[in-house]
Amino acid sequence: MHGILELSLQLLNSLYPASLNGGHGAQIPIHGEQNVKPTPTTKTSGIPDYFVTDDGHFQGPTQTGAAPFLAQTNLAPFAGVSYIPNTPLETQMPIPGNPDNKNIFQSLANLSPYFPNPRGFGVNEYPIPPGANVTWVNMVHRHGSRYPEVSGEAAERTLGKKLTDAAGKFTAHGPLSFLNDWKFLLGAEILVPNGKYELFQSGTLHYYQYGHLYSNNGSKIVVRSTTQRRMTESAEYFLAGFFGLQWTQNATLELAIEAPGFNNTLAGYKQCNHTNWQVAKDGNTKWTRKIRQRLINR
Q1: Where are the alpha helices (DSSP H) in the chain?
Q2: Is residue 45 domain-shared with residue 161, that is, in the same domain?
Q3: Is 5 helix (H, G, I), strand (E, B) or coil?
Q4: Which top-level group of life is the source organism from (predicted)?
Q5: Coil, strand, or helix at residue 242?
Q6: Which of 13, 142, 176, 241 lies 20 to 30 Å from 2, alpha-carbon distance?
Q7: Pick from 256, 239, 227: nearest CA to 202
Q8: Is 126 among the domain residues?
Q9: How many angstroms separate the CA atoms of 155 and 149, rounded?
């Protein structure tokens, strides 16, 4: 779940501010990082090594999940509201005892698909003061929605293994009958299709917000990301949304190596043993112990 990408724009013009069989498919195996290369984005001749993004090194584990088949499995959208915006994910399931039509998929913490906070960021939105001009934007962006970590400690894999190991030892009924032949079909580490869509959308949104800051005089901005495949592709999809598919004419992508022993200001957890790995896991463990019994009693 780690990694960020960075984009800076400056105003240079001072005059203006697998097939389904019985409902299940085989999981696609993990590939070695040297066997999968992203689509080349820059030419390697005549540019410094640190701007080369198509050598395929240090991508981390890659695994594509089973292809979706909503045309078969999603018979009709569940109309929780009168108008449902176009979205590639089905998130309108009727929940018994939910009279307010609240979307349960927006209550899954970090596992929820991205959605804007309806309450904003705690402050009201106002236009910039009279006489002020926006001349610079420095943006740090999260990668898009992704598959779980390849580690067996990932919560999704832990739950998936428990359900798989219990196959044949129980019989589920009613709405839970799908558990009788359920299989874990998620990939690992890389962006899910919706994650690519999120970054492209974000790039388009940022273009509408800040496109005027790009001088478009033949110069290129520098965009930084890391070598993990989800991070590289997050930057590429954002840039495609911002500039279009010809983004390499407008931006140069610099990738910091995401591996132990390399200086990486965008993913410092591989250089420091006391970062969020330790802190987050310890906090989660304490919180789980605190609320576990209350959850069981429910």
Answers
A1: 70-73, 155-165, 193-210, 229-243, 276-297
A2: yes
A3: strand
A4: Eukaryota
A5: helix
A6: 241
A7: 239
A8: no
A9: 9
State the DSSP code for 99: T
CA–CA dist 4, 234 (Å, integer): 9
- The number of folded domains in the chain is 3
Written as one letter, the residue type at 110 is N
Please, how many CA atoms are within 13 Å of residue 207, restricted to the half-sphere of its CB? Answer: 17
Q: Are residues 260 and 228 in the same domain?
A: yes
Q: Are 156 and 29 in contact (CB under 8 A)?
A: no
Q: Could you tell me the residue range of the domain that residue 100 belongs to? A: 73-121
The pLDDT score that the predictor gives to residue 192 is 94
| Residue 185 Cα to chain centre, angstroms | 18
Tell me, yes or no, whether 41 and 183 share the same domain. yes
Euclidean distance between CA atoms 175 and 15, whole angstroms: 63
pTM for this predicted structure: 0.71
Cβ atoms of residues 25 and 19 within 8 Å: yes
pLDDT at residue 18, rounded to an integer? 37
Please report, rounded to a whole number, the percentage of residues in the chain having pLDDT higher than 90.
Answer: 33
* Half-sphere exposure in the Cβ direction for 38 (13 Å, CA): 26
Query: What tens digit of pLDDT does each residue of 201-258 get?
Result: 999 989 998 998 888 888 999 999 999 999 999 999 999 999 999 999 999 999 999 9
Q: Are 195 and 64 in contact (CB under 8 A)?
A: no
- In whole angstroms, give the CA distance from residue 293 to residue 54: 51
